[in-house]
């Protein structure tokens, strides 16, 4: 096999990326060596099992992936900004929209949310860590390695190009012979393993590690949404595992799951993909709902309105989300009866979602609202998301869907759901919990630039897509001719995407500025918040809580502050048991990555040899009887005194 | 660190309790995984595309022997847990070894069966039916293989450390896994082989 077949050559854009990637890697290695940070990196981050650090790594990776996916988006907008543009050719455009979708959903939204869950969830329930800290690290490393594997595809071997849904027969070997789609099958499989492990980990953490007195109906809303999301992960991700396994069998081993000629059935892929894919939408949006609930309650200075109906609506949404998958392919020849059933289940989701919207509005009613940046994101979310929701009900009507199906109207719809529903939430969550992670707040003024640029840019980018969609522009068109009446809309849309990019740049600048200049003197509770994560130091000491708090109601920290019971008694401090760091998760992640790479190129012998690396890690883990270590009571006292003053 | 003595050893620590619950949830995910494999099989089972159908290649006698081996191994696995509860290291290891031997026998039979099919011209690449057949059966067989490797590691640990809360927990969890594979096999036996023979 020659270099030509491995490296992608002949495109100046890609050549520039290859050089940039090489320089970045060299720069990082030289930099770390020069500053003698390898040991620090290894001991404090790469082998850590601390949920807070793992969460921060997830978030960092998520921000990087946001950049990558965002650049893909900008390239598409540039290509369609004028009729007959020749910025990208058809093949390149196909690769770009495929990777944009995958990167944004699986390598941006998921890690951002799982990252924030990692940081916040154990703190909210008063736990010292997650149930399985080492498994948690493995989840991160499999995700990270999968993301890297997927990301190198565009410079090594070529990116997948059959859309993020990768429908067969297009995604099969016959019509897509390159290695691109192998990346899809293998990288997603590796990431899926980590996600499933995360789901199990969080379910056990929430069910078994809550502070004494915190019954299920006294859990904070974000914890509730995390629990339900985790259950959805366990219920839905194995379906993706099997679908990808079928795809791998077809592409790598010549099986016939999806090829009609030998008795396969392409519709099997569609059904399995959306049986996972639709719950996946709720897997990313439910934790986001939880974040908004926390932020809105805190900055309205009120408890969350309609807590019980909130819980019921999350559970309802999760249940219904498993019953709507066919609405993604009404037009593929189902009977009218089948389409009607799925039309009704789909519209039913609007009911619990509407309940949530009204609960948030009633939470704000008569509240003393503080317009912080994270509250602004929550406020902007409500109207924008409602537009996404209402157009969703339009799409849910099977008969009408024949008109909208696979048009830009659909693209505009799901961006109106996912960007306010997930991205706004992640931003709200980042501004809100940033001081918990790092001990300083992000700058509010730059934050407001970030907010306004991004929200205005978002609406300018996606609102026009509804109209070109209704005018007949189908999705995934790489170019169009003059005189269709689309130029104006798409020109607006492209300009909007630049404003949105400026908003993202403002966020990056804000992070940089705040790291350097923000005040470190913000205390442990800068927002006067309500839940337990604020009842400990910022940044949080590695054992989370010196003494696990007792809970007797919702918003326990708020009650403690009102009653003045938020004090630590010296005699309550006991030694604390903590898990030890481990190198197994990162090594196993790397082994998965190498095996994955060889599988992508169908070098089976090498893949088999490196699989031994995965097995070696499993064996090492089985024989690992490290029972963690103890933090002495004196050390705990010392640490607590540092941030509480006198005990 | 055993705290509550009224519970079996494997439930004696909080971490153990969490590991076992986590494993039950993992088995939930495994049920979804196998259900999806079965769904794929049911969709494709009639699509033989000029290749052989199930009743043309299945050898009922061999399948019965496999079934007998695997079901018996589930029983001996329970005996192993019984010995563990009685704190009998020797009995525990003996029955685990018997369980593994039966599992190995099953695996040997299954591999032979696959080789036989390939000689008959029934391969993964022949038809949609056979693709889904081999993938479903192969996934189950792979699970059995992993279980055997896992049990080997465990026996070494029990021999070295005796029955402790940790080894007891690990043994209990692998027994859950092993019984689960048996349950999956009952579905395979019924819905793949028996149904295949009458179709």
UniProtKB/TrEMBL annotation, chain A:
Cofactor(s) named in the record: ferriheme a; Cu cation
Enzyme Commission no: 1.10.3.-
UniProt KW keywords: Cell membrane, Copper, Electron transport, Heme, Hydrogen ion transport, Ion transport, Iron, Membrane, Metal-binding, Oxidoreductase, Respiratory chain, Transmembrane, Transmembrane helix, Transport
Pathway: Energy metabolism; oxidative phosphorylation
InterPro entries: Cyt_c_oxase-like_su1_dom, Cyt_c_oxase-like_su1_sf, Cyt_C_Oxase_1, Cyt_c_Oxase_su1_BS, QoxB
UniProt domain Cytochrome oxidase subunit I profile: residue ranges: 36-552
Entry's localization field: Cell membrane
Keyword Oxidoreductase: yes
Function: Catalyzes quinol oxidation with the concomitant reduction of oxygen to water.
Protein name according to UniProt: Quinol oxidase subunit 1
Lineage: Bacteria, Bacillati, Bacillota, Bacilli, Bacillales
From TrEMBL, chain B:
Keyword annotations of the record: Cell membrane, Membrane, Oxidoreductase, Transmembrane, Transmembrane helix
Catalytic class of the enzyme: oxidoreductase
Membrane spanning stretches: 21-43, 63-82, 89-109, 129-156, 176-194
InterPro entries given in the database record: Cyt_c/ubiquinol_Oxase_su3, Cyt_c_oxidase-like_su3, Cyt_c_oxidase_su3-like_sf, Cyt_c_oxidase_su3_a-hlx, QoxC, Ubiquinol_oxase_su3_dom
Broad class of the protein's primary localization: membrane
Compartments reported by the entry: Cell membrane
Domain Heme-copper oxidase subunit III family profile residues, every copy: 1-197
EC code: 1.10.3.-
Catalytic activity: 2 a quinol + O2 = 2 a quinone + 2 H2O
SUPFAM superfamilies for this protein: Cytochrome c oxidase subunit III-like
Superkingdom of the source species: Bacteria
Function (record text): Catalyzes quinol oxidation with the concomitant reduction of oxygen to water.
Family: Belongs to the cytochrome c oxidase subunit 3 family.
PANTHER family documented for this protein: CYTOCHROME BO(3) UBIQUINOL OXIDASE SUBUNIT 3 (PTHR11403:SF2), CYTOCHROME C OXIDASE SUBUNIT III (PTHR11403)
Protein name, entry field: Quinol oxidase subunit 3
Annotated source species: Aquibacillus rhizosphaerae
Lineage of origin: Bacteria, Bacillati, Bacillota, Bacilli, Bacillales
Gene behind this protein: qoxC
